[in-house]
Fold Response regulator.
Amino acid sequence: MIECDERELWIMGLGERVERGAIVCSYLAEGGHRARTAKVSELSGCTPRAILLDLSPWSDDGWGVLLALKENPATREIPILPMYLSEIGQVGAVFPVAGFFTLPIDTAYMTRKLKQLGLTDESDDYDLQVMLVTRKGEEQVQHAITKLGFEVVNAYTAKEAVALGTIIHPYMMFCALMLPDQAAFELLERFRLYPQTRNIPFFVLLKGEMKDGERQAMSRSIEHLVRKTWLNRQEFLAYFKKSKE
């Protein structure tokens, strides 16, 4: 049995091909972080500091792992950083989402999570806008956000979200995983291009189940976001706070 170390970062979604996590582990080690590859079954005996999850076409059901972790109250608190690894484990892209929530929304959990992140502290003192980007609007999510003292601005496509977001500069964003014209990670990358929106907390809403075709489509949707050159160690570690250990 592997000794539990809750200070570790775990690389998951690799299945039996754990060698695909070697490059990421070496980058993290050089940055002063404890890291290793792991499987979902190991979470029953240990809780890592965070999970780095491969969602590329080469992953072993990374989307299924993501849903399973976020639907389970025992594991949904663990921060997850989605990434794209090549067939041999080179880092193609990292998607720094602020968090994930599953639908139908657990209002009490979402409220508690936003408060833990310090994102509700100023809602009573300022008129702050939150953007909700979904195909038809999510009334339950909208109601929960409004109860926290925020004004909700709805957008129904990624194109509309960019047009509105670059004008109003929302305080935070909630986006459905799949939109009519784009996927959530594509929209996240668009907002990261603009200085005024690149640091807006961006949450992704997951529906309770995804068909195999949808998972494949999502993997393909992030594939074209991968740069022609792989991220080097310095570029990859820019997504992490420097370890104090």
Remarks:
- The longest strand covers residues 80-85.
- The chain has two domains: 9-94, 99-207.
- The CA atoms of residues 12 and 209 lie 20 Å apart.
- The chain has a mean pLDDT of 91.
